[in-house]
Amino acid sequence: MKNIVLDATSDSARRYEHRFLVNEAVARLALRTSGTYLPLDRDDRPYQWSTTAYLDSYDWRIFRAAEAGEALQLRVREYHRTRPSEILAGASVYLEMKDDSASTSFKERYEVPTMSLPGYLRGEQKLPRDQNGLVERAERTIAGGVRPVVVTQYNRIAYSAPDASMRITADHNLMYLAVPWVTNDESSLPCRIGPVIAREPGVIIEVKWYQELPRWADELYSYIRDHMVNERPSKFVVALRHLLGEEQRSVAQ
Amino acid sequence: MKDLTVTMPPGSSTIPTSVVVVEDDPASADVLQRRLQANGMKVAVGRDGGEGLALVRQIVPDLVLLDVMLPDTDGYDVCLRIKSDGSIAHIPVIFLSARGEVVDKVRGLSCGAADYVTKPWNAAELLARIDAVLLQSRNARPPRLEPEAQRPDRARPVAAITLKDAARRAAAEKLLASRFDIVQDGSVAVDLILVDDSGTSDRDFADDGAAILVIAKGSETPAAEFARLDGDLGRHAELLVREMRLVRDMGAAADALITLATSLEAHDRFLMGHSERVAARAVSIAGLLGLDQAAVGTIRLGALLRDIGNAKLPPPIVHKAGELTAHERESLEQHPLLGEELLRRVSPLAPILPIIRWHHERLDGRGYPDHLTAEKIPLEVRVVSVADRFEALLADRPDRAAVSEPEAVRILQGAVGRGELDPAVVAALAALVRSTAQDMAQ
């Protein structure tokens, strides 16, 4: 089969990943501190919108596995200067597989032409095999039937070490939205994003690193932990809880 | 919902542009309101984000002017809420703010605003920007039309000719005279309007029931809505008007079928008015999901006629209050097939047949009659299924009491979790219920 992957990136090892919901004051302080030690990541410019469509089956196999603490998330990510009202409208998208456990993650990311995505969703188009076996696992899930079920949109500010050893991000204006998916067919593209399911009232700070945090980052991490609203599961889990009415805490619409 | 203060300048004769201003400073709001009203606009003012958003949802204005710094939230948040609500997302937003840093403007525009004007604003510049944004917005959407005028049946159709060139107008009149009555003004509802190929007319014959025929210049091949000033014009125009009348007649035939379907419910106190409620709910959901007008029309008609197959079943089974026997249930589950059979002969109703046949299907394949799964059930059908189940839960039935709207949403979310119903459709329903509850709280 013709290989239509435009680009691919892969984590070389499992990465620690902790997420916190904080208020704006704590987020500002965290970003000021991060900016003192790390350069601004040029791939995540301020006020750029990240739009992520998460895939699952209608019996929610990926979500149930994630709730149990370990899942291979399948998602499609796009970036825009202005918040889009549609998904899958551009020339290419990033098809990502993320092995997400309680505190570490592992990610494969493939840039593919948008029009080839339905082929991947139907299992007719195959990605090149990766060293970590995520593609093979993803294919088994896809064979059971998956489609975009929920969308997140947010503005991200990111600071990254030049050697990618650590990354601190702040996501604000985070919204969870429904997606009225028609069918895994090329005619479904682009797809209008549905209504807002919930909005996150604060800022999500994510701290990601490979080996050990430097001293300043360790202190910042402790400060965030002490001043957070709460520790957060992944956006996928929160989004699905809202979608299925399983989120106890109601977030004002 | 609070009473709205919507004011109009005296002597307005045309439909004024409707604007919602969200501004917490009374003096600024007053100056802006006066300036807009002096330019023929109808203005409503919201003093904070919540009030402004409620006004936008209630009025559905042509434009929103939004301050950034508000007492209860910020303008970016209000803009995001407008742009993420399918029923009002099309309304252009202009930020008016004293915050004039590049980063503020970028943030405002990235939230979906059409423009960003810094305070203190210059009236001429602001009005020019408003005009530009409104022009862009109107070009992107079909024009707002007044309700269709009552049109008596006539032997000869009526045409209005709005060609600017007098010679071309006279030629068109001559070509149409044998088949049409020609009128010169908008006092009579017309069947046909002839326009120049610029698509605009300087006379007001706005009527969404009339066929529009564009008179093309040059030698390009005319499409259905285009014609040339030649001997074929009369025939072309007459065909177009007949097609328009046929569509209207089909609407009347559908109305008759709806009367039949709803009359079946009128004898059952538990079902009375159920179809109308399902249709209204399904249309609201479809609107929030951003489905196009054709799909919304299909959903409305399909929802109204979905149970018409019951007309072919014995009334004692359809209206039985107690538990059904296996045989009775089997009979009742035939109603989607019977309904489809009934309507299949009416070819213009073809788009609603999937709703008639599949409105009891479930995503997990455990519905009937065809046990379809997931996306094999069209989205329009999934919308009607959710509206049907929701409205059923809100009504008392012989075997159970009605539940509240939030409780019904929770029950349907449970059904989504079990893989029965479409998650996005139930999410849209939940958003509607939440919005209604918030309106009532205000």
Give structural notes.
- The complex is a heterodimer of chains A (253) and B (442).
- Chain A has one domain (7-243): VTC, catalytic tunnel domain (mRNA Triphosphatase Cet1, Chain A, Alpha-Beta Barrel), CATH 3.20.100.30.
- Helix content of chain A is 23%, strand content 38%.
- Chain A has helices at 24-37, 61-67, 117-121, 134-143, 215-227, 235-243, and strands at 7-10, 15-22, 49-56, 70-80, 86-87, 92-101, 104-113, 147-160, 166-178, 191-192, 196-199, 203-209, 230-231.
- In chain A, strands 2-7-6-4-3-8-9-12 form an eight-stranded antiparallel barrel, surrounded by five helices. In chain A, strands 5-10 form a two-stranded antiparallel ribbon.
- The longest helix of chain A has 14 residues, at 24-37.
- By secondary structure, chain B is an alpha/beta fold.
- In chain B, helix 14 (379-394) packs across helix 15.
- The longest helix of chain B is centred in the middle third of the chain and has 34 residues, at 233-266.
- The A-B interface holds A 46-49, 58-60, 81-83, 85, 145, 147, 149-150, 155, 173, 175, 177-184, 192-197, 243-246, 253 and B 76-77, 80-81, 83-86, 89, 103, 106-107, 109-112, 288-291, 363-364, 374-375, 378-379, 409-410, 413-414, 416-417, 419, 422-425, 427-428, 430-431, 434-435, 438.
> Biggest interface, which chains?
A-B, 37 and 44 residues
Rounded mean pLDDT score of chain B = 83
**Biggest pleated sheet of chain B:** 6 strands, mixed
Q: What proportion of the residues of chain B is helical, as a percent range?
A: 40-55%
* Quaternary structure type: heterodimer
Count of folded domains of chain B: 3
Kindly give the count of domains of chain A: 1
**CATH first level of the largest domain in chain B: which class?**
Mainly Alpha
Question: What would you report as the Rg of chain B, rounded to the nearest angstrom?
Answer: 26 Å
CATH topology title of the largest domain in chain B: Hypothetical protein af1432
Low-confidence stretches of chain B are: 1-13, 142-152
Q: Could you estimate the helical fraction of the residues of chain A in percent?
A: 10-25%
How would the global form of chain B be characterised?
A: flat
Helix-strand pattern of chain A: EEHEHEEEEHHEEEEEHEH
Ends apart, CA distance between termini of chain A: 46 Å
In spatial order, strands of the major sheet of chain B run 1-3-2-4-5-6
